[in-house]
Amino acid sequence: MPKVFIEKTNETRKVEAATMKEILQKLNINAEEVLTIKNNELVTLETKVTEKDSIKLLSVISGG
Amino acid sequence: MPCKNCQEKPVFIQISNVKLCKSHFIRYFEKKVLYTIKKFNLIQKNDKIVTALSGGKDSTTILYILNELSKKTRRFTISALLIDEGIRNYRDKTKEDAISFCSQYAIPLEIITYKKELGFTLDEMLKISKQKPCSICGVFRRYLLNKGARKLKANKLATGHNLDDEAQSILMNQFRRNNETSARLGPITGILDNKNFIRRIKPLYLLTEKETAIYAFLKNFPIQFTECPNAKQGYRNDVRNILNQMEAKYPGTKHSIVNTFLENLSNLKEHYSHQSSLSSCKKCGEPTSKEVCQACTLLEEIKSILKK
Lengths: 64, 308
Known about the structure:
The complex is a heterodimer.
Chain A: E1 3-6, E2 11-14, H1 20-27, E3 34-38, E4 41-42, E5 54-59
Parallel strand pairs in A: 1-5
Antiparallel strand pairs in A: 1-2, 3-4, 3-5
Chain B: E1 12-13, E2 19-20, H1 22-39, E3 48-52, H2 57-73, E4 77-84, H3 91-104, E5 109-113, H4 114-118, H5 122-128, H6 133-151, E6 156-158, H7 163-175, H8 179-183, E7 199-201, H9 209-218, H10 235-249, H11 253-275, E8 279-280, E9 287-288, H12 294-307
Parallel strand pairs in B: 3-4, 3-6, 4-5, 6-7
Antiparallel strand pairs in B: 1-2, 8-9
């Protein structure tokens, strides 16, 4: 299960998922609201993920 | 599937399902900003433009692009203005990012603080006032940005407002039946001309919040992807959530809202130009449609609570 760091809540969660899209679905996070980062690179939702990857979700909302 | 223009890995998929790699996304983004500037005639020769800089992704992005354009064309000048409201653990960090960015690109930066100009930080005001943070902050930030831009002798104030911000504002005004406020929106704000009112331009008007975040990330700007601690409490936050849910289910929703609004904007401005009037606040001299401006009224309210 890949480990996912959620920057907005500053927490790391283990998620059973094969793609970025599945990660967001399982965490109930809207794709409009985050950048999906895999091993420090920006990737699209269809990107495959494995346990070895370092995954980060960066919040796109700043609020001023 | 690779980028539509080359064999590189995509970093972004457009609504139309077109895939773009890092360099083609950057090109697409910058071209769209230029298109927006031209389409809405946002910049003229010899303009003196001040960019409202918060240190976040939107304002840093637009400051960077306008600064590059200014160096390339030499048709207008650019500087930055930061309003420090005094939000602990947020503005202090983004302010440091802003200072470091302006120093890196040799952009003149002016910092104005709530504490010095108004007597209180936003955090102090929130302990006293029952109003929501964004309602207080919105009024004072607009007030100080206008005052600061005039002090810097600018004739335009560029802001990092993006398509999401505009779609949210349009809906908020619809929900509150506030057409006159909508008439002030658009890529160039304001209905009436007034020598004390610095018109705001929004070169990111046609780009979404996510696209802007992608650009800022890919350009490796020294910024933090953090949310203002007060943002969750605002009406705007609820509208943002509704819009993001709609966009996820029905891609293109935000563009449709803004494009439909643009089709009606000139009628709205025309209609309210006959009904509105701008004069000077009798207390501070800033432009207002009332006798005393919103900022002076709000500040008096806060001071009167303190006296009790």
